[in-house]
Amino acid sequence: MTVLVVGSVALDSVETPFGKADDVLGGSATFFSSAASLLTPVQLVGVVGSDFPVEKLEPLAARGVDLAGLERADGQSFRWRGRYRHDLNSAETLETHLGVFSRFSPKIPSQFRNAPFVFLGNIDPRLQLDVLQQVDRPKLVACDTMNFWIQSRRPDLLELLKHVDMVTLNDGEARQLSEKVNLVQAAKWIMDCGPRHVIIKKGEHGAFMFNRDSIFFAPAFPLEEVFDPTGAGDSFAGGFIGYLARTGDLSESNMRRAVMYGSAMGSFAVEKFSTERLMSLTRAEIDARIRELRQLVTFEEELPA
Amino acid sequence: MTVLVVGSVALDSVETPFGKADDVLGGSATFFSSAASLLTPVQLVGVVGSDFPVEKLEPLAARGVDLAGLERADGQSFRWRGRYRHDLNSAETLETHLGVFSRFSPKIPSQFRNAPFVFLGNIDPRLQLDVLQQVDRPKLVACDTMNFWIQSRRPDLLELLKHVDMVTLNDGEARQLSEKVNLVQAAKWIMDCGPRHVIIKKGEHGAFMFNRDSIFFAPAFPLEEVFDPTGAGDSFAGGFIGYLARTGDLSESNMRRAVMYGSAMGSFAVEKFSTERLMSLTRAEIDARIRELRQLVTFEEELPA
Questions:
Q1: Which terminus in chain A has less CB density within 10 A, N or C?
Q2: Rounded mean pLDDT of B31-52?
Q3: For helices A183-192 and A171-178, what crossing angle results, to 10°?
Q4: Interface probe with A: pick from B175, B213, B297, most Cβ of A within 10 Å
């Protein structure tokens, strides 16, 4: 089954302790698509400026990402410049130029409107709501958000939460949104706003999936070298939603598997700059990492005496 | 099999957002024993002052903790006063009075010297080394440490590491000791100093067990209420070493189970002040939490097509 993703397509310039990259592919929709397209067909809706090197998107198109919803607008593309220090935990934003993204108004092409899986990347919740007006009863809608919208668009975000099945956000965002320090309490608070499933991403500390009556935890893969953390969260979402769309199965046991695909994709994303590692990835490598993640947490209970 | 623990026995005064407790049982050897004695016999070596309310230790003795190695010295007992803010992540130390603990020189009673399992709680590494001179070829020696000793007694600590099988420390301590930010690299560095096993405790984010050729990860139990984090790490160590001693089995698969007992004990310890919850705990409650922890991370791999 197909996934529709709406989000940013950007040019990132990143410095890490291991090197720097200028004007490389970035943006939530880009990372999401790079991961999800390894598993299922993807339809992308976003906007780039007239300066965007569209040939950089050709490998994505070759892998089954339908770019018919990628608008080219007059003006500059969304550019982000950031730096990671030694601990790689948090990005320091040096420059943000929204460019044409500041006037983004998603238009879902008619042939995308019946996508069974929809991922609303991190954009203004008013736009996320607008997208939901344009699509035709998807099987599953998930959304992401960020601290800026939680602070500046709280009523719209709360309205959005009434209309989505699932929200993905990081631990800091979950705490900010719920005003609860404890993550179990935070997840319950968010589920009370509407979503049946809350995914809380904790970066190198793994991710929780909270459902109405269960909690699942996926570890992060313990990498010896983390090269560039940019895009890990959107790659996680791409692996997770991509796997759900590929299987079309929303049972608890399948959603647990899907979270592991999310964790795997997040771990690959950080191994190189931009989407480089995701674009070179093979199905065999993904399967191997899923098995390694399983081995990481496997223990046998004691046999009864 | 019996575990010998050497460490502090203290009186803690703790403030949390949920209440305060004055002069309650604390100290590394106390928390360790409270957890380990649920699983196996324990021999404790430590020191208290002439002011110590020894009747507080009677429940421990009743549960099989041999206090023959608890010295009573003239002077004040070790007292710690601390406070946890809203996020409960890090203790703010308000007062530390080492009292008789500042002159502690562990003397291992002759009947304790052949204990097959030895846990060297967080004390001066010179004293930890001295304990190893007094014991008779244990099956397994584990040690803990802290930032203060890593900074002030580095050469002694490195010498100690040559003589222990396992070290338990938190993520910050592992980074400080190894001068590596990445925990996989930090663990390898520490194993290169001697220990075959390194346990890195990450509090609410779970714990890693690094062996020469494998990594195991145990999640922390996602509690909805964390009451008082004091002693979680020593309770973890008590559950872990206690389970190894109970089973006498140092295979990888059994060590993985042991880490889960550590995680379970750490999660119980934080549910109430001091050792209160550990002292009321039943074997059935422990087993139930182990099953819940297993359920938290269980997923089935996809069946082959």
A1: C
A2: 98
A3: 60
A4: B297
Number of helices (H) and strands (E) in chain A: give both, helices first. 11, 13
> pTM of the entire structure?
0.94
CB contact under 8 A, A216 and B301: no
- How many residues in chain B? 305
> Order of strands across the sheet with A207-211?
A65-73, A42-49, A3-6, A117-120, A140-144, A166-170, A197-201, A207-211, A214-218
> Is the CB of B217 inside 8 Å of chain A's CB atoms?
yes
Which chain A residues contact residue B88 at CB under 8 A?
Answer: 181
Q: Which residues of B228-247 are buried (b: 16+ CB within 10 A; e: fewer)?
A: bbbbbbbbbbbbbbbbbbbb
Nearest to B79 by CA among B182, B179, B9, B6: B9
Query: What pLDDT score does A303 carry?
Result: 58
Nearest CB to A302 within list B205, B219, B257: B257
Sort out which chain A residues have CB atoms less than 8 A from B300's CB and list them. Answer: 253, 256-257
Q: Residue B206's closest chain A neighbor by CA?
A: A205
Backbone angles phi, psi at B53, to 5 degrees: -75, 85
- Report which DSSP code applies to A259: H
Partner A contacted by B182 (CB < 8 A): yes
- Interface check for B296 against chain A (CB to CB < 8 A): the answer is yes
Give every CB contact of residue B292 below 8 A, 6+ residues apart in sequence. B221
Q: Which residue of B has its CA nearest to A260?
A: B299
For residue B88, pLDDT over 90 is answered with: no
Q: Among partner residues A181, A219, A260, which is closest to B217 by beta-carbon distance?
A: A219
Predicted complex ipTM exceeds 0.85 = yes
Q: Is the pLDDT of residue B304 over 70?
A: no
Taking the CA atoms of residue A244, residue A250, residue A251 and residue A252 in that order, the dihedral angle to the nearest 10 degrees is 70
* Neighbouring-strand partners of residue B201: B170, B207
Instruction: Give the CA dihedral A62, A68, A74, A76, nearest 10 degrees.
Output: -40
* Token duo for residue B241: 């070493």
User: How many other β-carbons are positioned within 10 Å of the β-carbon of residue B268?
Assistant: 25
Length of chain A: 305
- Could you give the percent of chain B with pLDDT greater than 90? 94
Judged against a pLDDT cut of 80, whether residue A5 lies above it is answered with yes
User: Which residue of chain A is at minimal alpha-carbon distance from B294?
Assistant: A299
A205 close to B (CB below 8 A): yes
- Does B216 reach chain A within 8 Å, measured CB to CB? yes
Are A216 and B296 inside 8 Å of each other by CB? Answer: yes
Q: Give one DSSP letter per residue of B202-258, joined into a string.
A: -GGG-EEEEETTEEEEEPPP--S-----TTHHHHHHHHHHHHHHHHT--SHHHHHHH
Listed residue (B230, B212, B225, B297) closest to B266, CA to CA: B230
- CA B278 → CA A145, A150, B227, B245, B268, distances in Å? 40, 40, 13, 18, 6
Candidates A181, A217, A296; nearest CB to B296: A217
Average pLDDT (A187-194) is 98
What totals of helices (H) and strands (E) does chain B contain, helices first? Answer: 11, 13
Q: Are B137 and B160 in contact (CB under 8 A)?
A: no
Instruction: Give the nearest partner residue to B217 out of A260, A296, A302, using CB atoms.
Output: A296
